[in-house]
Design goal:
Oligomer: single chain
Distance between the termini: 42 Å
Helix content: 25-40%
Strand content: 15-25%
CATH topology of the largest domain: UDP-N-acetylmuramoyl-L-alanine:D-glutamate ligase
Number of strands: 16
Number of domains: 2
Structural class: alpha/beta
Largest sheet: 8 strands, mixed
Strand order of the largest sheet: 4-3-2-5-1-6-7-8
Number of helices: 15
Length: about 450
């Protein structure tokens, strides 16, 4: 049953997609047994492990943690999901995407362990997670930063005991798997915490179950607004209103001593998440150096999160909580023309809630159809928009088709928000990348 060593990454991914009857199968028994067979539970895979869970803000927190570590000279590995254009995006080693060979070696190790005894079936995500953990252990970095894919307690990432656990925000999402009860969702997310180890709570609006679970587990709680704080340059107003002064963070280091940083730059990502990343990194055992922190926040990049490309803004936000943040950021950056939302969403997401949160910042809507079993059509989105009294400018069969249609009609003063799903943003990025790739290939042909 072992795959030939020469199998490509694409072949492996296709095989993993077809290997398990369902895409999401919450539970740790299967994945923990394979991890045990792989030796992943025999000892630490990195000097320190920070695990990040939450509904929104995970990706930005991970990105800022990685940037902080890199600027402090700390070797890193980061694991995130999903990806936008290439699977390699999910695993970064010392700031660079993992190569095909490293990923394939991980999949081969997973496959060998799956059949080392009674065969064990794994989902695409579970196999990918174990493969990434194998690659991280082979590199043995000073810090591994792991993003939880779904939930927390029963997520594949939780087979490891994190040195620092982070919970960013709690909101309703993935209701088919986590339900609609925020207290229940909070308990699931908090399941990544461990007794006697730091737990960083990155929101002041978390359900009570998060802190209660931390207490029951015996974790050391460090909560935003209590153990650590962030203050913008004008009291509680956004530091984005001025380029002067920056913002201030205060928290604690791993020994409990007070640490304070001033004149921090706007990272272009939620400041609560920036403050959370600073606190989590400090609790990992590293002393925060002010200039390194400023460089890290000023230079952090995260594709698909408030990512501007000319008059286009791309964000993978797909629930009401994320949409509220997007609307706020757009309001902070007014434009002279129209603000158009190119919206594509999956059928199991709260379209009404997302549209309602974004509506104050949007002048016109362009719903698009996504592909796949969970997709929602442009017509269905248009019906929801019109029922909510929102102006529908056009309907498109795909995000790429929507981009092409808008490209012929936008004025220089207009702007477009591309949002609603990772799939929406990925399709637009792919549409933009295709002409560049074609031109590159044409240039290569000309030199032969």
């Amino acid at each position: 049953m072992n795959e030939a060593p020469s199998a490509s990454l694409g072949n492996w991914l296709a095989r993993l997609e077809a290997a398990h009857p369902v895409s999401i199968d919450l539970g740790l028994e299967r994945v923990a047994e394979v991890a045990r067979r792989m030796g992943l539970l025999d000892g630490p895979i990195a000097g320190r492990v920070i695990t990040v869970a939450g509904t929104n803000g995970k990706g930005s927190t991970v990105a800022m943690l990685e940037s902080l570590a890199r600027e402090h000279g700390v070797g890193t590995a980061t694991y995130t999901s999903p990806h936008l254009l290439r699977y390699n995006e999910r695993l970064r080693l010392d700031g660079a995407e993992a190569g095909d060979a490293e990923l394939v070696a991980g999949f081969e190790a997973v496959e060998a362990a799956r059949f080392d005894g009674d065969p064990i079936s794994l989902t695409y995500f579970e196999a990918g997670t174990l493969g990434a953990l194998h690659a991280i252990r082979e590199r043995s970095p000073e810090l591994a930063i792991l993003e939880v894919g779904l939930g927390g307690r029963l997520d594949a990432v939780n087979v490891l005991d994190a040195d620092v656990a982070v919970v960013t925000t709690i909101a309703r999402d993935h209701a088919a798997y986590l339900g609609d009860d925020l207290e229940v969702i909070g308990r699931e997310k908090a399941g990544i915490m461990r007794a006697g180890r730091p737990a960083v709570l990155g929101s002041q609006a978390l359900p009570q179950s998060v802190a209660a679970t931390a207490e029951a587990l015996g974790a050391q709680v460090h909560a935003l607004g209590a153990a650590f704080t962030r203050v913008a340059c004008r009291g509680e107003t956004s530091c984005r209103e001025t380029g002067e002064g920056g913002w201030t963070w205060q928290g604690h280091d791993a020994e409990g001593a007070v640490a304070r940083l001033e004149a921090l730059p706007d990272p272009g990502l939620p400041l609560d998440n920036a403050a959370t990343a600073l606190q989590a990194f400090a609790l990992g055992g590293w002393m925060l150096e002010a200039e390194a922190c400023r460089r890290a926040l000023a230079g952090v990049e995260l594709p698909g999160r408030m990512q501007w490309r000319g008059q286009w803004c791309l964000d993978v936000g797909h629930n009401p909580h994320a949409a509220e943040y997007l609307a706020q950021r757009l309001a902070e950056r007014p434009c002279e023309g129209r603000t158009v939302a190119l919206l594509g969403m999956l059928a199991d997401k709260d379209a009404e809630g997302v549209i309602g949160a974004l509506a104050p910042a949007i002048d016109a809507w362009l719903p698009v159809t996504l592909e796949g079993d969970r997709a929602r059509s442009a017509e269905a989105l248009a019906a929801t928009l019109e029922a909510l009294g929102q102006p529908v400018w056009h309907r498109a069969d795909s995000p790429a088709a929507g981009v092409a249609w808008l490209g012929e009609r936008l004025s220089p003063a207009d702007r477009v928000l591309v949002c609603g799903s990772f799939f929406t943003v990925a399709d637009v990025l792919a549409a933009w990348a295709e002409p560049a790739q074609t031109a590159m290939e044409a240039g290569s042909e000309g030199t032969r």
